[in-house]
Each structure stands twice: as C-alpha cells, then as structure tokens.
Amino acid sequence: MVPAEAERADDKLVRKVVNQKNQTAKTKKPMKPATGAVSAPVSRRGDIEVTEEKEHEQTKKKEELARKVEELRSEEEAAMSKEQNLLEEKANVKEALERKQGTAEKANFSVSAATFS
Question: Whole-model pTM?
C-alpha cells in the first residue's frame, strides 16, 4: 500500500501541472488572422508600378510568342521550298530521260529505215 502522504504529494504535483496548463491556455491572446495584402503596395504609385510590370511581362510574352510563330513559319516555308525543289528536280530528270529515249528511238528508226532502203 502507498502511504497517504505520498498520495497527497502526487495529487499536489498533478494539480500544479493542470493549473499551469490552464494558466498558459488562459494567458494566450487570440492571434489576428494574416491578410493576403501584406506585399501589396500602399500608395497609388505602387499600383501603377505593379500594373506597368504586368503590362511589360505581357508584352514580353507576346513578343516571344510572335517570335516563335515567325520561326515556325519560316521553318515551314523552308521545308515547302525544299520539297518543291525536289519535285522540280524529279520532273527535270524525267523530262531528260524522255528526251533521251526519244532520241534513241529516232536513231533506231533512222537505222532501220536505212536498212530497208
């Protein structure tokens, strides 16, 4: 069995701890909620500067987009030009072969005509 004096001492310690927790909870003051406008400029001039920065960023984005569009257009144009050149080259080769065959046929016709004469 635990002596009565020991129980009393433990009760006093427990009461002290509980009282301390209650006191700290009571002494804390409620915190003010943080506002989202902490970094927002206060003056009208600051509003103008923020607006100008946003416009400048938008302008930069538009210029970058326009540059990319122009670059893609020029690449597409170069690819189309290259394809057109290949088609023209194929057509020229085909025409040259047809002329060569026509010349060969004429030569053969001339030889065969000379043989029959």
Answer: 0.43
